[in-house]
Design a protein that fits this description.
Layout (H helix, E strand, L loop, with lengths): L6 E5 L2 E6 L1 H6 L4 H6 L6 E7 L6 E4 L2 E4 L12 E6 L5 E2 L5 E10 L3 E8 L2 E8 L9 E5 L5 E5 L9
Antiparallel strand pairs: 1-2, 3-4, 3-6, 4-5, 6-12, 7-11, 8-9, 8-11, 9-10
Length: 159
C-alpha cells in the first residue's frame, strides 16, 4: 500500500479490485479484498438479518444489534458484515457485550481479540488504555464504519 498510487488485487487470476490504496482499504469490493488489505485484517461476521423493531444480524444464534440496517437486505438473506479493527470502540455505553480473549501490547496500540455474538472480533485500541484478558467489555461501531457484503458471492453491497 505504501509503494503505489494504484493497486490491482487479484485472486486465482481474477481481478478483484483496482484502485488507490485508500479506496481499496476503505471500500473493499469483496470479502477477499477486505481481508487481504490491512493488518489485522477486517473482521467478517456471517449472518442473516432478523425481523423486529430494530436492525439486527443473527450470528450463530445471537443477535448483533445495529444502529442502521444494511442497504436492501430483507430478513433471512445471507450477509457478511465487515468491521475494521480500528473502527471497534470499546466503551461502557456500547450496545454489544464481549469477552476479552487476548491482549497484544504493541506500544502505541494494543490489539484486543474479543468473542462477541459467537464470533471473534479484533479491535485496535490505544496502547495506553489498560485492558485485561477475561474481562467483559461493551463495544460499538459507528454506522459509517460498517461494510456489507453479499453472504453468497462475497461482493460488496450498497455504497
Amino acid at each position: 500500500m505504501t509503494l503505489g498510487d494504484r493497486i490491482v488485487v487479484m485472486k486465482d487470476g481474477d481481478v478483484q479490485q483496482v484502485g488507490s490504496p485508500l479506496t481499496i482499504y476503505r471500500e473493499p469490493a469483496t470479502t477477499f479484498v477486505a481481508t487481504f488489505i490491512g493488518s489485522p485484517s477486517m473482521n467478517l461476521l456471517n449472518g442473516r438479518m432478523t425481523t423486529g423493531p430494530s436492525p439486527a444480524l443473527a450470528v450463530d444464534n445471537t443477535e448483533l444489534r445495529l444502529a442502521v440496517a444494511p442497504p436492501s437486505a430483507p430478513p433471512g438473506v445471507p450477509l457478511t458484515l465487515g468491521i475494521r479493527p480500528e473502527a471497534v470502540r470499546i466503551d461502557q455505553d456500547g450496545p454489544q457485550s464481549a469477552v476479552v480473549d487476548e491482549v497484544e501490547l504493541l506500544g502505541g496500540e494494543t490489539i484486543v481479540s474479543l468473542t462477541a455474538s459467537g464470533a471473534r472480533i479484533n479491535a485496535k485500541i490505544d496502547g495506553a488504555r489498560p485492558i485485561n484478558r477475561g474481562a467483559t467489555v461493551r463495544w460499538s461501531v459507528a454506522p459509517a464504519d460498517l461494510h456489507w457484503f453479499d453472504g453468497v458471492t462475497g461482493k460488496r453491497v450498497g455504497g
